[in-house]
Design goal:
alpha/beta; D-Maltodextrin-Binding Protein, domain 2; 6-stranded mixed beta sheet; 5-stranded mixed beta sheet; 15 helices
Length: 379
């Protein structure tokens, strides 16, 4: 199997963060400055007149009023959260941000786009982001290599990808000798491409897998005749079908469990910032609820982040992910991790001996579930 990268070969040592909404997303070192009232001349020159002491009950009332009137922004904890692809599977994290659910839970989140699972994992290892919505295979690879990254929630616990081909390719056999596009080697679409080929009884060595970046780039390459097939997700698949292309395989229909996309953090961060991580998880499950129950508003957010006005394609995205794929209780699938380990074991035999629980920390989610919070959202 040939694997070719069309990306710049100089892979950055530090991930470049960008923001899907166009807002500044540079990482700025934050210094804590104690809050204090500005001092003016009249503050320290009361005069010689002695003031009568304030009654205790009045003093307590003033303190309470001052606390209630404190600006909301001063109570928000700043946090940087990322997502690794502009695809419908990441809609829950976009919606959590845009619906104000992070702020509702006391978090001032800067949501940044870090393309590709391996790059996203590197950003968490460097502590440039505290949590990521990202591909499960990258977490497995990073953890096997010695990091403490784990999945805290599962957004997509199955292969939700679709293998899309140009109009002239209508059968699996026609893929032999052809070019298949993914985003980055080692990321979820790359894993999906190899799994799809094996499922279709095609030796991956009989095709050329190209690393082409985001879905829109892959689609344009197919339109230009530079690519014969690609691993895609809605809404791009809907646009591809409108252009006469074929969905050769909808992998979500295969029924297997694979932890493809989820929320991730480092064990160190979870241990040292339990309260903050708990509020993040609470906001996220509220975001999933919003995604599933507020279709019109969710579609507007998806369209904005996907930068499309094709609302038919956006609607297909909502129907595919909100109604079909994303679970109400987003536990990371243990079987899904085991499946990823089995795939990894073909190149790293030691992966077959590792317990899948090592890659999961669902304690925050379980606390919310045990409290009845998750069930309460849907009553």
């Amino acid at each position: 199997m040939k694997t070719t990268s069309l990306l710049d070969s100089s892979f950055p040592h530090r991930p470049v963060l960008s923001n899907a909404e166009g807002r500044d997303s540079r990482l700025i070192e934050i210094a804590w400055i104690p809050a204090r009232a500005p001092l003016g001349r009249d503050d320290d020159r009361i005069g010689s007149r002695q003031l009568a002491p304030m009654p205790l009950c009045a003093l307590v009332l003033v303190i309470i009023l001052l606390a209630l009137c404190r600006p909301l922004a001063a109570q928000q904890e700043k946090m940087i959260v990322g997502y690794s692809a502009q695809a419908g599977a990441y809609a829950p994290i976009w919606i959590t941000k845009e619906a104000g659910l992070f702020r509702k839970n006391g978090l001032d989140v800067n949501l940044v786009f870090i393309p590709g699972g391996p790059t996203a994992a590197a950003a968490m290892i460097a502590n440039e982001v505290q949590a990521m919505a990202m591909a499960g295979p990258a977490i497995v690879s990073s953890n096997l290599a010695g990091s403490d990254l784990v999945m805290t929630a599962g957004i997509v616990n199955t292969f939700a990808f679709q293998l899309v081909t140009v109009k002239s390719i209508t059968t699996p056999g026609q893929l032999k000798g052809k070019r298949i596009g993914v985003n980055r080697f080692g990321a979820a679409p790359d894993v999906a491409a190899r799994y799809a080929l094996n499922h279709l009884k095609i030796d991956p060595r009989k095709v050329t897998i190209l690393q082409l970046g985001e879905q829109s780039t892959r689609l344009e390459a197919m339109r230009a005749g530079q690519l014969d097939a690609a691993i895609l997700l809605p809404p791009i698949t809907t646009i591809a079908q409108k252009a006469g292309m074929n969905i050769l395989l909808d992998m979500s229909e295969l029924g297997g469990e694979f932890l493809i996309t989820g929320m991730a953090s480092s064990q160190k961060y979870l241990a040292q910032n339990r309260s903050s991580a708990g509020r993040l998880m609470r906001a996220f499950v509220e975001g999933i609820h919003y995604f599933k129950t507020q279709r019109r508003e969710s579609e507007k957010i998806i369209a904005r982040y996907m930068r499309t006005d094709n609302m038919e394609a956006v609607g297909a995205t909502w129907e595919y992910f909100a109604a079909k794929i994303v679970p109400r209780k987003p536990y990371p699938s243990v079987k899904g991790v085991k499946a990823l380990l089995d795939l990894a074991a073909k190149e790293r035999p030691e992966a077959a001996k590792v317990q899948p629980e090592r890659f999961i920390n669902a304690t925050l989610l379980k606390e919310l579930d045990d409290s009845g919070f998750l069930d309460g959202l849907y009553k």
